[in-house]
Amino acid sequence: MKFVLAGQPNSGKSTIFNAVAGYRSATANFPGSSVSYTISRALIQGREVDVVDLPGVYSLTSSDPVAGEGESYLLGGDYDLIIDVVDASRLGRSLELTLQLLELRRPMIVALNMLDEAERRGISIDVAGLQRELGVPVVGTIARRGKGLRELFRTALRHAHVGSPAPAKSLDREIEQALESVSSALQGAGVETGVPARFAASKLIEGDRHFSSRVFGWYPGLEATVAAAVSALERAHGWSADQIVSGGRHAVAHSIEERMSIHGSPSLGWREWLDRLLLGPWTGGPLMVAILAAMFWIVFGIGQRIEGPLVEVFDQASAMVIGRLEPGSLLATLVHGVLMGLAGGVAIVLPYLIPFLLGLAILEDTGYLPRLAYILDSLMHRIGLHGKSVLPLILGYGCSVPAIMSTRILESRRDRRITGALAAFIPCSARSVVIFGLVAAYLGPLWALLVYLLNLGVVVVLGSILSRRMRGRSPGLILEIPELSVPHARTLAAKTWLTMREFITIAWPLLVASSVVLGLLEWFHAHDDINAILSPLTVTTLGLPSAVGMTLIFGVLRKELTLVMLVQALGTADVGSAMTAAQLVTFTLFVVFYVPCVATLAVMAREMGWRDTAWIAGLTIVIATTIAFAGRLAFGLVA
Amino acid sequence: MMTLDTIDVRRQARVILIDGGHGVRSHLNTLGIHVGDWLTVVERAPFHGPVLVEVNGTRLAIGRGIASKVRVEVDGTVTSLEDTARANLAPS
Questions:
Q1: Less Cβ around it within 10 Å: N or C end of chain B?
Q2: C-beta atoms of B57 and A121 within 8 A
Q3: Spatial separation of the C-alpha atoms in residues A357 and A500, rounded to whole Å
Q4: Are the beta carbons of A453 and B32 closer than 8 angstroms?
Q5: Do A62 and B52 touch (CB under 8 A)?
């Protein structure tokens, strides 16, 4: 048994999914937070059921690539029931998709979600009436608080067994005539599209490029039939056919909304008031700077307060353990490596990583990110992109992998390539750990801020160069701005844990193993050779101790490794005693800019191809060396 | 003819035609903006930034470039029907 959660972006599909599957699918308050589908097995009333969380689709006739993945699953996938998640506070628009889903003639139920938000907007909905109108079961839910979900899945199970698909709703007379003539032509020709003929007909009339080219490729004779139906429709209405069909659905959906809901007076209160400030022409920009700066100071403040004592404890503990072993023995080297790997994870990475991820989760869940896209749109136009590119770039501060994947929300290939390249340059949380752990901790937070600003400057310059060189169109910003919402502590914790778990299960063992490998290399004196090979870069150009050479190689595996390996290579967690301020800055600059980690390279290759990936990787090395060298010179002048 | 990017904040306007290609049109359609819909301009970002509009209970940020392709009427403006029909049927 397999259920598919389908619905428009930001309607709460992933929230419902997580409620039955455990927190597996990242949720956030912006449209397009899920870019690929997640499947999980859940136990519902003692039955094992596969639940699929699809990326949101506004309609089944859109052309952007994120929607494409959800759409093709809905059209051709093998599943038993659709759970159409409808945002009750935007009933009319959500029903436009529901009408299209009904056309698929698959068993379906409706989850009328976000009833609390609808209530706040003064909307009350006649659930029983809506159920009669649509001909499929409708269950009211508030997924964020878990309300109605048990009933939803009970209904889903029952309906998947006994329910039959409901008939599609009729649109106006001319559209029905056009649909009728095309679908009977399709049936007459014996066209096998895998979807009901009526739905196929509507896709052809609306001019779905992908669908048309497939059908007309096999049956060229049908092109004339469709063209005749389209021109009859356009003559009758005076608009283009795609607008007539979509307008027809719009009219039916809104007539259902009008009959089934009562609009009272909304009580938006502080949300509206806050939004006026956050998006106000003269307050939006300054508030944005204040919010991001506050986040920076809080992350740094918390991290620093925890890091100091932890490093001390670990240094003492490791000194004690090492003291009992024979100095210089193989065993001592191994134990030392393990300890340093553990220390790097606990004492340096975690203190900054946890508050950082929490802060990012808060930005995501409040719905502030799409507002940033609105505020920064005109600035992004200066570098040849538009506001939507802000989302992947901000996500890049968390981790480059989801950031590059989220470039799929952009409509044009050109924008996706440029934004993907830029996202690789944004310091991810691992690189932020290096900035915080070295520059902020030893030189002060202002210097760290300077590193971030310098990075942003490089991204802006690079962006304008890339967008000037790359041809193609950038369609401009069209983005839904969801209502502000108060993040739930449980969701924040679950979301932070989702990323933390990845760190603990994948990165940390890698840290310890690499630390041991480095220890062994030192024991066999092999590290000198590798460091010597890199010394033209590290020592001659950047003026760093030759021991850092190895750390940069390990850093390609995971960027946190550079910091932990540095601790290991220098033999102390108090890096400030072994490196000068200028060296710390130069090293950090290089780490921030050079080659993204292997996971990022892999996802870049998947999304953008190996050629682009190789180009970007090469570019990062050139830029990293230049910036770090310039930083070394500049620091020499200042200090 | 007036376009969406020139409408004052807090004014209501009615969409009379969307003057873009198939892609822009279907994108606006699926987000809830159709010909004939009333919308309210909630905010206009400075420095040639996007406009924030409210339509059918949803708020959308629309870049100036796209907004300039959405032709609208406010109370009292008159447009030739023939003009509208021709532009609506123009090949995308």
A1: C
A2: yes
A3: 9
A4: no
A5: no
Q: Which CATH architecture has domain A173-263?
A: Orthogonal Bundle (1.10)
pLDDT of residue A63: 57
Q: How far is CA A589 from CA A207, A329, A434, A452, in A?
A: 51, 36, 10, 10
Q: What does the domain layout of chain B look like in residue ranges?
A: 2-89
Residue in A374, A409, A484 to test binding to B, most B beta-carbons within 10 Å: A374
Fold assignment, B2-89: SH3 type barrels. (2.30.30)
Q: SS in 3 state form for A29-58?
A: CCCCCCCCCEEEEEEECCEEEEEEECCCCC
What band does A290 get if pLDDT is binned at 50, 70 and 90? very high
Residues 58-77 on B with a CB inside 8 Å of A are 58-66
Quick: pLDDT tens for A12-28.
888 898 888 776 666 76
What's the CA gap between A567 and A569, in Å, rounded?
A: 6
User: How confident is the model over A453-463, as pLDDT tens digits?
Assistant: 999 999 999 99
Residue A60 burial (CB count, 10 A): 25
What CATH architecture does domain A2-162 belong to? Answer: 3-Layer(aba) Sandwich (3.40)
Q: How far is A18 from chain B (nearest CA, A)?
A: 25
The minimum CA-CA distance between B79 and chain A, rounded to whole Å, is 16
Which residues have a Cβ under 8 Å from the Cβ of A279 and sit 6 or more positions away? A371, A374, A375, A481, B42, B43, B45, B52
* Minimum Cα–Cα distance from A272: chain B residue: B42
For chain A, residues classed under CATH 1.10.287 are 173-263
Interface mutation vs chain A, best among B4, B31, B69, most A CBs within 10 Å: B31
CA A437-A439-A444 angle, 5° bins:
105
**Torsion angle of C-alpha atoms A149, A151, A153, A155, degrees rounded to 10:** -150
Q: How far is A112 from chain B (nearest CA, A)?
A: 16
A32 pLDDT more than 70: no
Contact criterion met (CB below 8 Å) for A437 and A307: yes
- The answer, yes or no, to whether residue A571 has pLDDT greater than 70, is yes
User: What's the pLDDT score for residue B92?
Assistant: 42
pTM value surpassing 0.95: no
What residues form DSSP beta bridges with A87?
A: A113
**A593 vs A427: CA distance, rounded Å:** 8
What is the separation, in whole angstroms, between the first and last Cα of chain A?
67
Question: What's the whole-number mean pLDDT along residues A185-209?
Answer: 87
ipTM for this prediction? 0.82
Question: Taking all residues of chain A, what is their mean pLDDT, rounded to a whole number?
Answer: 86
B52 contact A CB<8A: yes
Compute the distance between CA of residue A494 and CA of residue A496 in angstroms, rounded to an integer. Answer: 6
Q: B67: which 2 tokens?
A: 């907004």
Note whether B70 and B88 are within 8 A (CB): no
Cα A532 off chain centre by: 40
Pinpoint the residues of chain A covered by CATH 3.40.50.300: 2-162
pLDDT of residue A476: 83
